[in-house]
Fold these 2 entries.
Entry 1:
Amino acid sequence: MGIDLLEIKLVKRLANSRTFRPLLLLISLAAFVVLILSGLIGTPVGNKNASIVLVWILWFAALMIILIPLGGRIWCLACPIPSLSEWISRGAIVTKSDRIANLGLKWPKRLDNIWMQNFAFLGVAIFSPLILTRPRATAYALLLFMFLALIVDMSFKKSRAGRMFCRYLCPIGGFIGIYSSLGALEVRSKDKAVCRKCSLKTCMKGNERGYGCPWQVYPGGLEKNAYCGLCLECIKSCAYQNMTVQTRMPGKDLLNKPRLDEAFKGFIMLGSAGVYSAAYFGWWNGLKNIINFSDDIFFASAIRWGRVGAFAALLIGVTLVALPAVHMGFAWLTKTLSKDDEQSLRKIFTEYAYFAVPLGFMAWIGFVAGMLMINGSYIISTVSDPFGFGWNLFGTAGYSWTPYFSGLVPYVQFASILAGGVMASIVTYGVSKKHFKDRAFLTSLPVALEIAVLSALMVILNVMP
Amino acid sequence: MLKRRDFLKTMFFGAAVAASPAGVLAKAGDADVKEFHIKLSRYSYSPSTIRVKQGDRVRLILEGMDLEHGFYIDGYDLNVTVRHAEQKTLEFVADKQGAFKIRCSVVCGPMHPFMTGKFVVEPNQPFWTAIALSMLTPFAALIFMRMLDRRRDDGD
């Protein structure tokens, strides 16, 4: 067990406070509104517009390099996207409301997984050449997410109404969820026995102090981070004050209850990191042409749909076809070496596929670190002139593009990939030990070879031959 | 097999050395130079790969094909801007080995941050070292995990 952060008085006060999260949300919502406005009415030049620079360089780098490793899903605590739906449905911002307005449509059982999030992420990734470069596209995307959250959260419920968009649809929440297993923070019950004996289950039903878990999980039985949004409602509502926020060993719960949809999320993220490295920062002019969907800076009039289709085919081909197919081959080899007929090929495929989670995460860290080192200087100029109107709020608007330690970028990216390879091997060995104790080393070898090959491919893309 | 000294130099010091400025804008004149004619257009360099040997004197003739573009080489910290229909010559000694990204340094359109190419100075030892390490490390991690397990079992 890690350090119980609720032992720290300030943290305990904040976790139990009903004003802390709304305050965070109001701040992030204000920033969100500025970013959307900047996208809609600011300069169409991405490098000079806050909606591009502060979202896709600053926020994304902070999310991957700091927030997820340290706090898992901690971004979800402050994310403004579901704030409006939450406040409107509850009819309250700070105080605990007794009602949650919802149409009461039951969330379909067959969608009780993250497949929708997988496809939503791919959808955003396919249009990323527009979203990452055109401020208006980013603004439209953020508005669309907020609109969908409003509709979905107020229409559907599972066991109760709540963060249905975050749980099942959010393209960002999907990968934050699976990568939060690598985070160093968790919400858990202090004593599982207390939860087993508890007949009140206020963590699910809610009480006068807090709402029932808006993320549709049973907090008392939490065993993995993926679906806990760190909203801290269960800390408030637990009748026995048995829920806490604690530090833990990163990756501890990665292999708890493995699922095929999560396995594919791992492939989607790993494959996307490779495709992005190749298409955005690679040296193949053919690929550069493909991601140039439109010459129009306002993008709306002349999208080359053939190129969109080609990029979609590349992304989907790599993430949903090539990587899973290659992994199936290595899974079959593992099964053959195990000489164990009890484990199905599907189970072996799924559980060993979790190697892609740390490998993909570290590949993304390398990608965003490189982007930050090369293009981070845009942040300095943009904070002074977020709309590109010629303002100079902090006197830094004239700061020119300055790559920082550009010669070190491949080394940083290589170190990330190497660390990802080590973590992926540890995951692989853990799966082998769980199922094939006496043959753990032997049965780990095929997937270790898969990790080695994929790491080498990432090295080719980042360190370059 | 890499020499240990070379390996350490590449992995730990090579990058720091790579950060020092090393090039000059100069007029062509020497016959023993490796010369490349590079066209800069939205959003690519043609050719997109320049390959030379360490110690080569390199002459890059940069020609702007449409708008103003930049030619910045990571690590070498060389930066030249070229306008439409303009030619500029960049001459320098390729004294640092490795592969370095070439990037546009002038905002030239929506895809500007992704206008990249590569400048390779052979022998590209950092690349081959990285490939070798990335291939070997997963197996090394497995061996380490098995050793830990055995030690734990022996302890029991």
Entry 2:
Amino acid sequence: MSQAEVVRRTGATEGARKTSPLWTFGLLRSELLTTFRRWRTLALLAVLAAVPILVGIAVKIETSDGAGGPGGGGGGPAFISQITNNGLFLVFTALAATLPFFLPMAIGVIAGDAIAGEANAGTLRYLLVAPAGRSRLLLTKYATTMAFCLVATLVVAVSALTVGALLFPLGDLTTISGTRISFAEGLLRALLIALVVAASLIGVAALGLFVSTLTNSGIAAMATTVGLLITVQILDQIPQLHAIQPYFFSHYWLSFADLMRDPVYWDELVKNLGIQALYAGAFGSAAWARFMAKDITA
Amino acid sequence: MEELPAAEADEHDSVGAVIATRALTKRYRGGQLAVDGLDLTVPEGSVFGFLGPNGSGKTTTIRMLMGLIDPTSGTARVLGQPMPRAARAVLPQVGALIEGPALYGFLSGRDNLLRYDAADPTADPRTRRTRVAAALDRVGLTAAAGKKARAYSLGMKQRLGLAAALLQPRRLLVLDEPTNGLDPQGMREIRSLIRELAAEGTTVFLSSHLLDEIEQVCTHAAVMAQGRLITQGAVAELAAGTRGRLVVTTPDTGDAARVLKEQGAGDVVITDDRVTAEPPERDLADVNAALVRAGVRVRGFGVERASLEDAFVALTGEGFDVAG
């Protein structure tokens, strides 16, 4: 075969194989479908949906017994005592109860498994020779993890709203500042709070993704991410570490309650979102640098 | 990134070669030298057998060719373009089965292929289902397409991995141990599939430790041991490089051996009623006549063709299944 023939053939083949412009979305769609069709994902969402149900039933039983003041518990800032007056408060209570542990743990599982799980199964090498492209695959994984953050938070919120509506009355509500707002505005604030809670998980997601690029074992990556989460939560309780605590990804998590003030107190909310952006930037870049240079031997 | 200087693509020694490596070397972080100065040339249109014992560096080489591992030094060109730099342009034209199939156990066979196809930037989503169905049909998995992949047998997984490599028309197929885990019938099917693909003009790069398999389907072969390339070339030439052995079947083995030595045959070995030797540099008819003249009762006389295995043993001085 002559040289010219080879060149012509190469040209023709490349011409026939144009990159489809919507390809990245196709990859993202495939990733989302794959993630949300796993039993593990559905089980995590089921656990998250169960939390508001348990809290709702517990509050209902306690108050119908005619017992005195409601227990403080993990309910967070003064929301749990209001549930009996207004079912909408179950949304805030449930989010406050799941944000410190259940939600970030679920994110840790999904993010930690993102790359390491594929490496463990060997499917990573086939995605890369397809070729998905390392940057695109990583971005797709991060986007999917964030989509899971949002879905997980909304599952908690919707489950809480449903249980709240079934067990307790709904209506106008009182903000933390003591002013009255309409039920419609309360719903809007609940949605806003759910979005802020989902955004609070961006930092953990980036951290989990970075850990996931370090190992070929999905289980190890998940365990490390969840372990880091618990460690940070503990360190955040030690008064001597006061100076570094504002840099923990979880430090301003419960600031979402400020959205229930009138007027809204934005200071810590903004700090929280800033910290999440910082973590996403730092660990996102670290994950990218690591993944681009990694030898895929699994 | 995908556009490369034309001069580079026309580089003399890569024209006509689907795979060309120059001094390709990989040293792992632990200091272990997995591939040592590999110069491999795979001609276009060949069925190329890549041989070597376990641990000889075959898989590391394949991973470097596919852009999964960065070489420590040296260069690799696939389809005339440098890897891993041109991976985006090269890999859509390459189908690969590397170190066995890897599947999503919780997805059906069909969904596994749909996912792999979605990862290919050049795959047309409109024809995806048709192409997946065609690939499943080609490997005989249509009936099991709806089953979860975790319920597949090893042979079925192997077929599904092959189907993933056949989702698009390819210029090069890289198949690492493609008949692993298959029953004899499955092996035969895969071999005929490989021949079929080669007839369509696809270059097939086949790694295997089964020498007879390579001999049956390959036009060219290369042998690796301990990270180095020992030899490469057309299979017929490799086997011809080793001369066949003269075999005499006779009840009078002692006399036969003596006569053969007198006739100039070397390395005479007696086993049961067979005497084998390096054939001497003269007409074998004369050798046979000499045997008969000496009163040796000859039952059989002939030269056994050298197999690739003989060639391999001659090259490495050791059996094939020795870990490097």
